[in-house]
Design brief:
alpha+beta, Endonuclease, Chain A, nine-stranded antiparallel beta sheet, 31% strand, flat
Length: 512
């Protein structure tokens, strides 16, 4: 969710004589202090040491606390003084007193009227960041009494808070000032905002989402669980000293279980309109929907029979046929019986290794593994191939396998781009056989993902995956192994009782 608060600021302009400490990056000074030699033979280095002592960075051959700070940060504070045009806000309820702009004028200070018309002491001693090329960071150390106030003008402050993480203020007009505000208690702020439930209806403080009724006419909102609110009128919603409040991307959830059922059915139909799903994929997708944060508290039923009953009421369009075709095209059964499956899901952004995945799969009752086949169209680029190799390494380590036949069935050329196939498997795991999926099937290629184990009696155990092998992301790919932790995508992994769910060409190939 994004909140945007807008208020008018009274900006005052002064011409005054100011003493400043300006923060500047000096990596040369940092390096010299880091390698400091208190007794150099070279005359130039001796003079440098005298300069360092004069600045207070060293004393009697020892680095001072100020010098230590430079070694840590690489920044120094330079003193300067002169005549400036200062733009600032004084005693604002939100910002307190801050400078918005600082402009160096000619050094002649005699034409400044020796009269203090405003108390600027609240600006002294604070560290400011104007993000200006000349004054990135500075502290005003002294403002003498000869100060003249030139004018007063207004500008706008826009304070943006996004997704409970970012809190940024921007000040428009000529100042282009941006910076982070002090830390805020985001949830406490929202509690105050949404005490006014009449703005929207039901706001759930538990889920931090807005409860709404399902509305099929607002498809974008229903699909994304987001309400894109433009703004609220000032007289409807005023917060603190702000003139206007705007709210964007409000997170939504169903108002009650009945709405959740209708909403889930809508999302399921949309998925079926876009693509064909076999019964296993249908049930897994239904389960994923039921486990969504927005639906979870309602305990929806994800079973295939529930889906069949709800889908029968559809008009005979794409969604209907994409769901019922695999059931109707199975002549050996009066009604389709889903193969027994065991499944587990991994939440997005989980911290896992491929060995953790193998442990979760609980691969048992296979006997002595003699062969492994992995079917996945997209093991093409280097990262995908490395992930596959590490996955196989994890299985080999887990079962202490040494000599075994491993086969990868994949696309040899990406259908959607000109991306050429990497050769990592060929160079680092030449014992793995690579087979082009087009050798198996000349017809439409099925984009399922399966890991198939065979024992010495050619009995198989099959696992399916809802995502390709790059479902684990590694920010640093140096020295990866089966125990290296990565960040996961949202994925379901399921085991099948038999091979009846495999598409015919693949089933024929693995049993040949």
């Amino acid at each position: 969710m994004q909140l945007e608060f807008i208020k008018t600021l009274e900006v005052k302009e002064f011409t005054c004589y100011i003493k400043l400490s300006v923060k500047r990056e000096r990596l040369d000074v940092q390096k010299y202090l880091d390698d400091y030699n208190p007794n150099p033979d070279d005359t130039i280095l001796k003079n440098i040491n005298k300069y360092l002592e004069k600045r207070g960075w060293v004393y009697q051959g020892q680095i001072t606390s100020k010098g230590d700070e430079i070694i840590k940060s690489g920044f120094i504070w330079d003193e300067e003084e002169g005549k400036y045009r200062l733009y600032c806000v004084l005693d604002d309820p939100l910002l307190d007193s801050i400078p918005l702009g600082l402009e160096r004028l000619s050094p002649d200070r005699q034409n400044i009227i020796p009269n203090q018309v405003s108390d600027l002491s609240s600006l002294i001693g604070k560290e400011f960041n104007l993000q200006d090329k000349d004054y990135m960071n500075f502290k005003i150390t002294e403002i003498p009494t000869f100060t003249s106030e030139q004018s007063q003008k207004n500008t706008k402050l826009i304070w943006k808070i996004e997704d409970e993480v970012s809190s940024i203020f921007e000040i428009t007009n000529n100042f282009s000032l941006k910076g982070e505000t002090k830390k805020i208690d985001f949830n406490s702020l929202l509690d105050q905002l949404f005490k006014l439930n009449s703005l929207y209806g039901e706001w759930s403080n538990t889920n931090m989402k807005l409860k709404v009724s399902f509305d099929q006419n607002k498809k974008a909102e229903m699909i994304n669980f987001i309400k894109n609110e433009a703004s609220l009128k000032t007289n409807q919603f005023r917060f603190g000293s702000f003139d206007t409040t705007k709210i964007y991307n409000i997170p939504l959830m169903p108002r009650d279980k009945a709405n959740a059922e209708e909403w889930k059915k809508f999302l399921f139909e949309k998925e079926l309109i876009d693509e064909y799903k076999n019964p296993i994929e249908s049930e897994l997708f239904s389960k994923e929907l039921c486990e969504k944060e927005e639906f979870k508290e309602y305990g929806l039923d994800s079973s295939i029979n529930t889906l069949k009953n709800s889908m029968k009421n559809l008009q005979k369009g794409k969604a209907f046929w994409h769901f019922f075709a695999p059931l109707d095209l199975n002549p050996k059964h009066q009604s389709y019986q889903i193969p027994e499956i065991e499944t587990f899901s991994i939440s997005p952004n989980s911290n896992l290794s491929f060995m953790d995945i193998v442990e979760k799969m609980n691969i048992t009752q296979i006997g002595n593994i003699s062969k492994i086949i992995y079917y996945d169209l997209y093991v093409i680029n280097r990262d995908q191939q490395e992930n596959f190799k590490i996955f196989i390494d994890a299985i080999m380590d887990k079962f202490q396998l040494k000599k075994i036949h491993v086969e990868l069935i994949t696309l040899f050329k990406n259908r959607n781009s000109n991306e050429s196939r990497a050769d990592l498997i060929k160079s680092k795991a030449p014992w793995i056989t690579e087979t082009d999926v087009k050798v198996i099937s000349k017809n439409k290629i099925n984009h399922d993902r399966y890991l198939i184990f065979f024992d010495e009696n050619k009995q198989s155990k099959i696992w399916g995956f809802s995502n390709s092998i790059d479902f684990l992301f590694f920010s640093n790919r140096t020295n990866l192994n089966s125990y290296t932790k990565g960040i996961s995508k949202d994925i379901s992994i399921y085991s099948l009782k038999d091979d009846s769910i495999l598409y015919p060409d693949l089933r024929t190939y693995i049993n040949s």
